[in-house]
From TrEMBL:
Cited SMART domains: MHC_II_beta
Gene3D superfamilies per the UniProt record, alphabetical: Class II Histocompatibility Antigen, M Beta Chain, Chain B, domain 1 (3.10.320.10)
UniProtKB keywords: Disulfide bond, Glycoprotein
Chain segments annotated as coiled-coil in the UniProt record: none
UniProt-recorded name of the protein: MHC class II antigen
PANTHER family for this protein: HLA CLASS II HISTOCOMPATIBILITY ANTIGEN, DRB1 BETA CHAIN (PTHR19944:SF99), MHC CLASS II-RELATED (PTHR19944)
Organism per entry: Ficedula albicollis (Collared flycatcher)
SUPFAM superfamilies: MHC antigen-recognition domain
Domain MHC class II beta chain N-terminal: 1-62
Length: 62
């Protein structure tokens, strides 16, 4: 079965940046969220960790 990993960041009940394992990168929804997404997407270690999180975090809990 398909398993999906979402890493979402909220401030005052408003989502400003998220990582979706189906997309494979961070997406920002505000000015600050776009800056954070750009920074995190440019770091290979962070991206490797997030892209493999569906395997080491989600699948065994599903």
């Amino acid at each position: 079965e398909k398993v999906r990993f979402l890493h979402r960041h909220f401030y005052n009940r408003f989502e400003f940046v998220t990582f979706d394992s189906d997309v494979g990168r961070y997406e920002g929804f505000t000015f600050l969220g776009e800056k954070w997404a750009q920074f995190w997407n440019s770091d290979p270690k962070i991206m490797e960790n997030q892209r493999t999180a569906v395997d080491w975090l989600c699948r065994h809990n599903y």
